[in-house]
Design a protein that fits this description.
The chain is an alpha/beta fold. It contains 13 helices and ten strands. 44% of the residues lie in helices and 14% in strands.
C-alpha cells in the first residue's frame, strides 16, 4: 500500500468512498437468495465493472464484494467451507481495478475489505459464542489480506460487542488497519440501541483507522449520528456512507428515492461538520459518487437540498455541542 486512509485525508482534505454493491449486483442479474460473494468466482467481470464505475466516477476508496463473506452468512448458501476463496477473490478483484485506475490516472486508490455482521446474536442474547465470532472474522480478514486489501471495513453493525469481537479476530489474523461503521436506524440509535456517542466512547480507544455510520433508515438519521461521531472528539477519522434515500416498492422491486443531489448535499454538510470519508450505500450508483466528487472538489455549488432531522436524533447532536471544525492529525 502506497498510502493510508489518513494519508489520503490529509492530502485532499477528505476521501470519497464508493457507493452500493448489493443493489448494483441485483441490477446486474444477481438472483434474490443467492450468495453475492459467490459472484466473485462465477461473475468476476461483473464485480470488476461495478468497481470500475465508481472509480471512473472519482472514488478514492472501493469496498470489496465480501459483506456477507463470513461463515455464518455463507452457511445459508452452503458455502461455509469456501469462505477463504470467496473473500480472497473479492479482494483480488478490487485490487485489480484499483491498480488499473492508479495506472490510468496516477491517483492512489484504497481497497477496503468489507466485513458485515454475522446475522447472529452473541450470548446471552443469542447462541453465538464470542470465540466462534472472533474465529469467523479472523478467517475472513486473513483471506481479504491475502487478496490484497489495504484495510478492513467492518460495516453495517448494530452491536458494539460484535464489532469488538470482529476487531479482535481481525487483529489475530493480520495487521491491516481497521475501520468500523454502524447502521443507525431508529431515533439515532442502532437496532441494538447504540448511539453515535456510545460508539465513540466504547471504541475510541481501539486505535481504529476510522469510525462512522453507513446504511441506516434514512439520510437525516445517518447524518445526525455521524455528526455526533465526528464531534465527540476521539481523534479518529469519521466515515459517512448513507443509503440513497428510502426504498419504495415499484412493481416487483425496491427503488431508492435518494437522488445524486440529495447525497451531494449531505456530503457537503458532512464535510463541513468534520466528516473525513464520505460515500454512499444501498441504492446508490456511480452517478451519486460523481456528484459527491464534484461538490466536494468545488467544481459545482452544493445542491439546495435540506434534510429535516428527527427531533430525537437531533437531541444527541445538541448534547455534543457545536464545536469549531478542526482537522485531526496524527495516529
Amino acid at each position: 500500500m502506497t498510502a493510508t486512509l489518513r494519508d489520503l485525508v490529509m492530502s485532499k482534505g477528505y476521501v470519497v468512498a464508493d457507493g452500493a454493491m448489493g443493489t448494483q449486483l441485483f441490477a446486474a442479474g444477481l438472483s434474490a437468495g443467492w450468495s453475492p460473494e459467490e459472484w466473485n468466482l462465477s461473475h468476476p467481470d461483473e464485480i470488476r465493472a461495478i468497481h470500475r464505475g465508481y472509480l471512473q466516477a472519482g472514488a478514492d476508496l472501493i469496498v470489496t464484494n465480501s459483506f456477507g463473506g463470513n461463515c455464518f452468512r455463507q452457511s445459508l448458501h452452503g458455502f461455509e467451507h469456501r469462505v477463504g476463496e470467496l473473500n480472497q477473490a473479492a479482494a483480488q478483484i478490487g485490487r485489480l481495478e484499483a491498480d488499473a485506475e492508479t495506472q490510468r490516472s496516477g491517483r492512489p486508490v484504497l481497497v477496503a475489505g468489507s466485513m458485515g455482521p454475522t446475522g447472529e446474536l452473541l450470548a446471552p442474547l443469542g447462541t453465538m459464542e464470542v470465540g466462534a465470532c472472533e474465529t469467523a472474522f479472523a478467517e475472513q480478514a486473513a483471506a481479504l489480506a491475502a487478496g490484497g486489501a489495504d484495510l478492513l471495513w467492518i460495516e453495517t453493525m448494530s452491536a458494539l460487542d460484535e464489532i469488538e469481537a470482529a476487531v479482535r479476530g481481525a487483529r489475530s489474523a493480520c495487521d491491516l488497519p481497521i475501520a468500523a461503521t454502524m447502521s443507525f436506524d431508529t431515533a439515532g440509535r442502532t437496532m441494538m440501541g447504540v448511539t453515535g456517542r456510545e460508539l465513540v466512547e466504547r471504541l475510541g480507544a481501539l486505535e481504529l483507522a476510522a469510525l462512522g455510520a453507513n446504511c441506516g433508515n434514512n439520510v437525516p438519521d445517518t447524518e445526525a449520528a455521524v455528526i455526533v461521531i465526528a464531534n465527540v472528539g476521539s481523534g479518529t477519522l469519521t466515515v459517512s456512507k448513507p443509503n440513497a434515500g428510502v426504498p419504495h416498492w415499484h412493481g416487483d422491486g425496491l427503488v431508492y428515492d435518494g437522488t445524486p443531489e440529495l447525497l451531494a448535499a449531505h456530503a457537503h454538510r458532512a464535510h463541513i461538520a468534520g466528516v473525513d470519508v464520505i460515500g454512499s450505500c444501498c441504492g446508490s450508483t456511480p452517478a451519486h459518487t460523481e456528484r459527491i466528487v464534484s461538490v466536494l472538489a468545488g467544481d459545482e455549488p452544493p445542491p439546495s437540498v435540506e434534510v429535516v432531522l428527527n427531533p430525537k436524533t437531533a437531541l444527541d447532536e445538541r448534547l455534543v455541542g457545536r464545536r469549531p471544525r478542526r482537522r485531526r492529525r496524527g495516529g
